[in-house]
Write a structure and sequence with these properties.
single chain, 37% helix, 7 strands, Rossmann fold, 7-stranded mixed sheet
Length: 193
């Protein structure tokens, strides 16, 4: 799938290097800067389609990687996928039974945008809050969480909520994000409750 903004350098590089989207480079940058994933970490990727983060995650851990999305995810060696809603208790229970211990939860999901800024911002924050709730329900003590958000009026409250559950919380605008984008990642380390 191409960027909605056309075939830019990051998109072309991703295709050339075999990644399903440019988002792969965003996760690589986050990992390089914050070291959120260790070799023995079980990882859950929320909103995982088309699977570029799963491709990167598979190279970062020797443990299990599970991707969850409303849409089917094309097969990737060494990755398990679940088709469903992250708010579904059944999905939550499946993750718990599959992995037992969850060390890291990542989420690069975004809702389909309408073009109405305040409405889109509210939907994005709602999805972020759902991802945070999922992470808080499955992460082991000391686990890590990464979520894509967008700067806006509701962002500070989301950031404050995240800080209540993790010892260290930072933000990052990645180099692979489009110029002018308000996209921002929350990197939360060391889950406390």
């Amino acid at each position: 799938m191409g960027s909605q903004w056309g075939y830019d350098k990051a998109y072309m590089r991703a295709k050339h290097e075999g990644y399903r989207s440019r988002a792969a480079y965003k996760l690589m940058e986050i990992q390089k800067k914050f070291d959120i994933i260790r070799r023995n970490d079980n990882i859950v990727d929320l909103g995982a389609a088309p699977g570029s983060w799963l491709q990167v995650l598979r190279t970062l851990t020797d443990a299990r990687v599970v991707g969850i999305d409303l849409n089917p995810i094309a097969h990737l060696d060494g990755v398990e996928t679940l088709e469903g809603d992250l708010n579904d208790k059944e999905i939550l229970e499946q993750v718990r039974s599959m992995l037992g211990i969850v060390n890291v939860v990542v989420c690069d999901a975004a809702p389909k945008l309408s073009g109405h800024k305040s409405y889109d911002q509210a939907r994005i924050i709602e999805l972020n809050e759902q991802a945070l709730a999922f992470a808080c329900n499955v992460l082991k003590h000391g686990g890590n969480f990464v979520v894509k958000s967008f700067q806006g009026t509701d962002f500070p409250e989301l950031y404050a909520d995240t800080k209540q559950h993790f010892h260290a919380v930072k933000t990052l605008s990645t180099k692979s994000s489009r110029k002018g984008s308000t996209e921002l990642y929350i990197i939360a380390k060391n889950f406390v409750d």
